[in-house]
Specification:
The chain is of the alpha+beta class. It is built from two helices and four strands, in the order βαββαβ. The chain has a single domain, classed as Alpha-Beta Plaits (2-Layer Sandwich), CATH 3.30.70.20. The protein is 18% helix and 21% strand. It is globular and about 25 Å long. The relative contact order is 0.39.
Length: 56
C-alpha cells in the first residue's frame, strides 16, 4: 500500500519529497503522495520529522 499523509500533522517541510526515490510526493499546503508512483519503500516515513506519514 502507498504511503499516507496525515494532513492534520503535516507541516509541508518537504523532507519526504526530498528523499523519495521515485518522486511520488509533491508538497504545497501539505504533502501529497501519488499512489500510482509510490513503491512503498518507507523513506518518507523515516524522513518525516513530525511522523505525519505512514505505510498503510
Amino acid at each position: 500500500m502507498p504511503a499516507v499523509v496525515n494532513k492534520d500533522e503535516c507541516t509541508a517541510c518537504g523532507a519526504c519529497a526530498d528523499v523519495c526515490p521515485v518522486e511520488a510526493i509533491t508538497v504545497d499546503d501539505v504533502a501529497e503522495v501519488d499512489p500510482d508512483l509510490c513503491i512503498d519503500c518507507g523513506a518518507c516515513v523515516d524522513a518525516c520529522p513530525v511522523d505525519a506519514i505512514t505505510l498503510e
